[in-house]
Amino acid sequence: MKDILVFDIETKNDFLSVGGRENLHLLEVSVVGIYSYNENRFFVLNEHELDKLGALFASAGLLIGFNIIGFDLPVLAKHLMSTDIKELPVLDLMDEPRNYLKFRPSLSSLATATLKKDKTADGLQAIKMYREGRMEELAQYCLEDVRLTRDLFDYGKREGKVLFFDTKMALNKVIPVSWGAKTEQKKEAESEKKAPPQRSLF
After folding, report:
1. Confidence (pLDDT) at 200
2. How far apart are CA 56 and CA 5, in angstroms?
3. The predicted structure's pLDDT at residue 201
4. pTM (2 decimals)?
5. Residue numbers of the chain with a pLDDT score lower than 70
6. Which of 45, 65, 174, 192 has its C-alpha lying 20 to 30 A from 115's C-alpha?
7. Quick one: 4-192 is in which CATH superfamily?
8. What's the rounded Cα separation, in Å, for the pair 86 and 169?
């Protein structure tokens, strides 16, 4: 079975230093954290190993992340030149919560309410780690985000929902998600590709 990969990236620069969100390609990638379901392991690719991503992503059955369509994949585009990003099998965990809430929730807000876990740092702190050469700490932070994303996906797939804490109403909102159904559709599509064509007996 093709692998399911959960991933997250960290960048060397922030939006302010590259002139705004329209310059995603200038942010530059410092590390990519990845979890492989087939191998049940976490690993990191640093800035000198990004040439491996194209083949890795192209061979995956599903790529999972949080805001990867609007952020991670566009930032990675220059490292995936031989891969058509639009053709990659992607599940962005931000999409359904955003559509339900009518605004963009953060990974932290969903993980805190759903998993009772929170991020260990933020993107600006990650940039500071890179600039100070604290690469091991940066890698661990990135992998913790990957772990949160994986755990949120597993919960949503299993329960068909995730939670979001509404500060105005001081309660958790239940957000329905169809991640389980979507992963099953991917498996079915993969099986159909592998299945030999049926030959008529007549």
Report:
1. 42
2. 9
3. 43
4. 0.88
5. 185-202
6. 45
7. Ribonuclease H-like superfamily/Ribonuclease H (3.30.420.10)
8. 38
Provide the residue count of the chain.
202
Q: Which two tokens stand for residue 16?
A: 């302010």
Structure-token pair, residue 91: 């599940």
Question: How many Cα atoms within 13 Å fall on the side-chain side of residue 74?
Answer: 11
Task: Look up tokens 């962005």; give the residue.
Answer: 92
Tokens for 54?
């194209």
- Cα Rg of the chain (Å, integer): 18
Residue 40 CB neighbour total at 10 angstroms: 7
C-alpha to C-alpha distance for 109 and 112, rounded to whole angstroms = 5
- How many CA atoms lie less than 13 Å away from 162 in the CB half-sphere? 35
Helix (H) or strand (E) holding 27: none
Pair 143, 33: CB distance under 8 Å: yes
The domain limits of the chain are 4-192
pLDDT value of residue 87: 85
Return phi, psi of residue 94, to 5°. Answer: -85, -25
Residue in this structure with the two tokens 């329905």, named with its chain if needed: 176
Q: What is the DSSP string of 53-72?
A: HHHHHHT-SEEEESSIIIII
CA dist 187 and 168 (Å) reads 40
What is residue 29's three-state secondary structure? Answer: strand
